[in-house]
């Protein structure tokens, strides 16, 4: 059987993405094949597509874009007993998610509750696992009442999740966002401040001290964020190009760095109604390039989700 996938055979702008018909991928040991219901766009998808991490003009073989996936299990690889055909799941795809069919390691999947839509489910894996990992690295892995955390970019995908999890742990969160997202950040339980010039003064006006800083945005003056805690020790970034200059830890993604159970815990919170997911904006699979561009330029807020 064949099915559609969005792939690129050379690095570049959104124009390098093409829809192809390919043979359905066969799950290896410990993997399942999903009939994809939704896949979400993460900034890393268009960064990888651009070749920013590569140093060559083209990948070794065509790459199907995307990591975040939600779908129905339709084929099992050897040794899979955690899921069966027909199960509804979400998680991290292996070998691409912008497709009608995708593979995933069962260790990177959790069950999708019926209360969570396909689009919302697909919006979660990367941002949720990143948020929990960051809190662990900042030594905020458990309840920490009285601690003050500044989240730079609290209105973004990672920011919305990390803010809610931190607030639930008793942490006071000061969250930066644009002027138009101040109410959204307040609704998450954080104290909102506008990012940009004068940030240090605005934070100090609402918090008498800052214990830790999580820069989700990779934008703004990292030196100012370091000044808030008095040193780089408890400042973490997942995206800032100036991390090394300021002695700040840069945490990149990666299987070994994930926090066991994070995705299942946050999905459980959504199912129980004690957390809310990022807003989603839905595009057809054919508009993958447009969705990546809208995410890159920030012209559309929320998690951008592709449906085949
Ligand atoms: N290393 C990793 O493991 C990892 C994992 C996931 C993501 N990331 C990276 O983390 C970054 C954020 O990802 P995301 O999915 O959360 O993106 P996103 O949803 O686009 O959110 C971006 C956030 O940055 C804020 N922002 C924009 N300009 C800013 C500025 N000048 N100063 C401070 N904040 C600003 C936005 O606020 P407004 O919308 O209010 O303007 C928003 O809160 C991306 O670069 C992504 O590649 C890294």
UniProtKB/TrEMBL annotation:
Domain Enoyl reductase (ER) positions: 12-306
Gene3D superfamilies given for it? Medium-chain alcohol dehydrogenases, catalytic domain, NAD(P)-binding Rossmann-like Domain
Does this UniProt record's set of keywords contain Oxidoreductase? Answer: yes
**EC numbers on record:** 1.-.-.-
Q: By its UniProt entry, which InterPro entries does this protein fall under?
A: ADH-like_C, ADH-like_N, ER, GroES-like_sf, NAD(P)-bd_dom_sf, Zinc-ADH_QOR/CCCR
Q: How would you classify this enzyme at the top EC level?
A: oxidoreductase
Q: Which GO terms describe its molecular function?
A: oxidoreductase activity
Is Oxidoreductase a UniProt keyword of this protein? yes
Q: Which UniProt keywords apply?
A: NADP, Oxidoreductase
One Pfam family here:
ADH_N
Q: In its UniProt entry, what is this protein called?
A: NADP-dependent oxidoreductase
Q: Which organism is it from?
A: Actinomycetospora atypica
């Amino acid at each position: 059987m064949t099915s559609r996938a969005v792939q690129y055979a050379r690095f570049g702008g959104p124009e390098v993405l093409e829809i192809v018909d390919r043979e359905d991928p066969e799950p290896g040991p410990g993997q399942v094949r999903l009939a994809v219901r939704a896949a979400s766009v993460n900034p890393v998808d268009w960064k990888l597509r651009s070749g920013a991490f590569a140093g060559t003009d083209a990948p070794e073989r065509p790459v199907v874009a995307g990591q975040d996936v939600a779908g129905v299990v339709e084929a099992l690889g050897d040794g899979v007993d955690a899921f069966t055909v027909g199960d509804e799941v979400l998680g991290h795809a292996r070998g691409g998610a912008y497709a009608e069919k995708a593979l995933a390691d069962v260790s990177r999947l959790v069950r999708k509750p019926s209360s969570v839509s396909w689009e919302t489910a697909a919006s979660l894996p990367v941002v949720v696992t990143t948020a929990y990992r960051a809190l662990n690295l900042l030594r905020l892995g458990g309840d920490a009442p009285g601690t003050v955390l500044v989240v730079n970019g609290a209105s973004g995908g990672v920011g919305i999740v990390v803010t809610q999890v931190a607030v639930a742990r008793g942490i006071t969160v000061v969250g930066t966002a644009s002027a138009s997202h101040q109410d959204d950040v307040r609704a998450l339980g954080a104290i909102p401040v506008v990012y940009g010039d004068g940030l240090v003064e605005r934070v100090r006006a609402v918090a008498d001290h800052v214990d830790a800083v999580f820069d989700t945005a990779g934008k703004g003056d990292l030196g100012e964020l370091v000044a808030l805690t008095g040193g780089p020790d408890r400042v973490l970034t997942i995206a800032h190009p100036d991390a090394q200059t300021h002695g700040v830890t840069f945490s990149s993604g990666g299987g070994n760095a994930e926090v066991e159970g994070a995705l299942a815990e946050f999905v459980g919170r959504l199912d129980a109604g004690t957390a809310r997911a990022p807003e989603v904006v839905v595009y057809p699979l054919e508009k993958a390039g447009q969705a990546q561009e809208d995410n890159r330029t920030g012209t559309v807020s929320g998690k951008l989700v592709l449906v085949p």
